TrEMBL record:
CDD domains according to UniProt: 23S_rRNA_IVP_like
Membrane-spanning residues: none
Stated name of the protein: Four helix bundle protein
UniProt cross-references to PANTHER family, sorted A to Z: FOUR HELIX BUNDLE PROTEIN
InterPro entries in the cross-refs: 23S_rRNA-intervening_sequence, 23S_rRNA_IVS_sf
């Protein structure tokens, strides 16, 4: 799912960069640090989309905190 929000576009680009960078992490970190960093960075654009889909502004803001 994509968004017209500029902040989502930037967060998505950051996610792509982090995934590319973490490909060079040691294989011993594949299920540790690599996984943790990737999950963290991918949650940002996901939260933006989820917040945007909310009906009330208070709910929308909750996903940015």
């Amino acid at each position: 799912m994509e968004s017209n929000l500029e902040v989502w576009k930037i967060a998505h680009q950051l996610t792509l960069v982090v995934y590319k960078v973490t490909q060079n992490f040691p294989k011993t970190e594949q299920y540790g640090l690599t996984s943790q960093v990737r999950r963290s960075v991918s949650s940002v654009p996901t939260n933006i989309i989820e917040g945007q889909a909310r009906q009330y502004k208070k709910e929308f803001i909750q996903f940015y905190i």
